[in-house]
């Protein structure tokens, strides 16, 4: 199977790997998992006082496509508002990385992870 | 013997439709059913009968493979009751379960990176006992409390454990190979 250069780049040099400090109120954490392949993804967003995502980090156990998808979305969400982040669609991720059809679920996982992180942040802040 | 395609896999082997299962009885019923429809018995039969026997043999084997595996048996029981386990689409698992999954993966990675086969073996035996506990829980949800939503979550959890099992096995194989 031929993978795109963008996918290989994110896989070989994943951006924003890691975690934020525990107990930071400005951080929202999303955790999701794909039963079919056992992939687990943790995605965190750090939101500033203006409601803009200023930083993001991820940790993913899974295949190259899952790692690349999460790496890509951590780049995408930076500078976005929560609503803008919520609007990110898995199809855009799949298209950007040229994911093969059998790996589309990796992009769904990444979309669900952002949504979960935003919900977690909103819940923390009573929104 | 004729195999009725309309029968469910439990009926096919004369078993009651529940998760708890006598594996010896399953084994015996399967052997008897498989022997009855074995293609060799139809070597001199007309083509139509041969084809029929082959279809039945395939059906019998699929039934056996489905019932033998606790994960597949659980999924099958749910599907008989119209519940889709959503293993391809549902990504929201209980948070503590996902955290534990992360820890499992970290432990496996650590053991693999330090070529620690003993640690991997220990993880493997811990995983087996976790799996048995989850299977018992699934049996309870299906046979006793009939909590089908909870059972579907457990089937999804079992999928994750199966993947861990495979990861540990691969790691051990790589280190020993």
Automatic annotation (TrEMBL), chain A:
Gene3D superfamilies in alphabetical order: 3.90.1010.10
Pfam families (UniProt xref): NifU_N
Matches recorded under InterPro entries: ISCU, NIF_FeS_clus_asmbl_NifU_N
GO molecular function per UniProt: iron ion binding; iron-sulfur cluster binding
Domain NIF system FeS cluster assembly NifU N-terminal residues, every copy: 2-125
A GO biological process held by the record: iron-sulfur cluster assembly
Superkingdom per UniProt: Bacteria
GO cellular component, one term: cytoplasm
TM helices/strands, residue ranges: none
PANTHER family named in the record: IRON-SULFUR CLUSTER ASSEMBLY ENZYME NIFU HOMOLOG (PTHR10093)
Function (record text): A scaffold on which IscS assembles Fe-S clusters. It is likely that Fe-S cluster coordination is flexible as the role of this complex is to build and then hand off Fe-S clusters.
Family, as annotated: Belongs to the NifU family.
Protein name: Iron-sulfur cluster assembly scaffold protein IscU
From TrEMBL, chain B:
Family under the similarity heading: Belongs to the HscB family.
SUPFAM superfamilies the record matches: Chaperone J-domain, HSC20 (HSCB), C-terminal oligomerisation domain
Subunit structure and binding partners: Interacts with HscA and stimulates its ATPase activity.
PROSITE patterns (alphabetical): DNAJ_2
Domain J positions: 8-82
Lineage, opening ranks: Bacteria, Pseudomonadati, Pseudomonadota, Betaproteobacteria, Neisseriales
Molecular function terms from GO: ATPase activator activity; protein-folding chaperone binding
GO biological process terms on file: [2Fe-2S] cluster assembly; protein complex oligomerization; protein folding
Lineage: superkingdom: Bacteria
Protein keywords: Chaperone
CDD domains reported for this sequence: DnaJ
Role according to the record: Co-chaperone involved in the maturation of iron-sulfur cluster-containing proteins. Seems to help targeting proteins to be folded toward HscA.
Protein name: Co-chaperone protein HscB homolog
Source species of the chain: Aquitalea palustris
GO cellular component, one term: iron-sulfur cluster transfer complex
NCBIfam families: hscB (TIGR00714), PRK03578.1 (NF002935)
């Amino acid at each position: 199977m031929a993978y795109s250069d963008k996918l290989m780049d994110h896989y070989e040099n994943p951006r924003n790997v890691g975690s934020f400090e525990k107990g930071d109120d400005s951080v929202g954490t999303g955790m999701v998992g794909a039963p079919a392949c056992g992939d687990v993804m943790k995605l965190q967003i750090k939101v500033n006082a203006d409601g803009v995502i200023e930083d993001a980090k991820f940790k993913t156990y899974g295949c190259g496509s899952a790692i690349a998808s999460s790496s890509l979305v951590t780049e995408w969400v930076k500078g976005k508002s929560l609503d803008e982040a919520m609007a990110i669609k898995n199809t855009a991720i799949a298209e950007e990385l040229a994911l093969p059809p059998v790996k589309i679920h990796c992009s769904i996982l990444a979309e669900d992870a952002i949504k979960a992180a935003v919900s977690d942040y909103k819940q923390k802040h009573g929104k | 013997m004729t195999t009725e395609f309309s029968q469910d896999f439990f009926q096919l082997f004369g078993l009651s439709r529940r998760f708890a299962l006598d594996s010896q009885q399953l084994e015996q019923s399967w052997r008897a059913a498989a022997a009855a429809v074995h293609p060799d018995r139809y070597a001199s039969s007309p083509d139509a009968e041969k084809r029929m026997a082959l279809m039945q043999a395939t059906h019998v084997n699929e039934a056996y493979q489905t019932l033998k595996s606790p994960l597949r048996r659980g999924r099958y029981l749910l599907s008989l009751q119209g519940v889709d386990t959503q293993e391809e689409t549902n990504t929201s698992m209980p948070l503590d379960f996902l955290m534990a999954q992360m820890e499992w993966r970290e432990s496996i990675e650590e053991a693999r990176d330090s070529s620690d086969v003993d640690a991997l073996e220990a993880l493997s035996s811990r995983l087996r006992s976790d799996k048995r506990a989850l299977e018992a829980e699934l049996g309870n949800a299906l046979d006793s409390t009939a909590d089908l939503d909870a059972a579907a979550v457990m089937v999804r959890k079992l999928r994750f454990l199966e993947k861990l099992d495979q990861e540990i096995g691969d790691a051990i194989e790589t280190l020993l190979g």
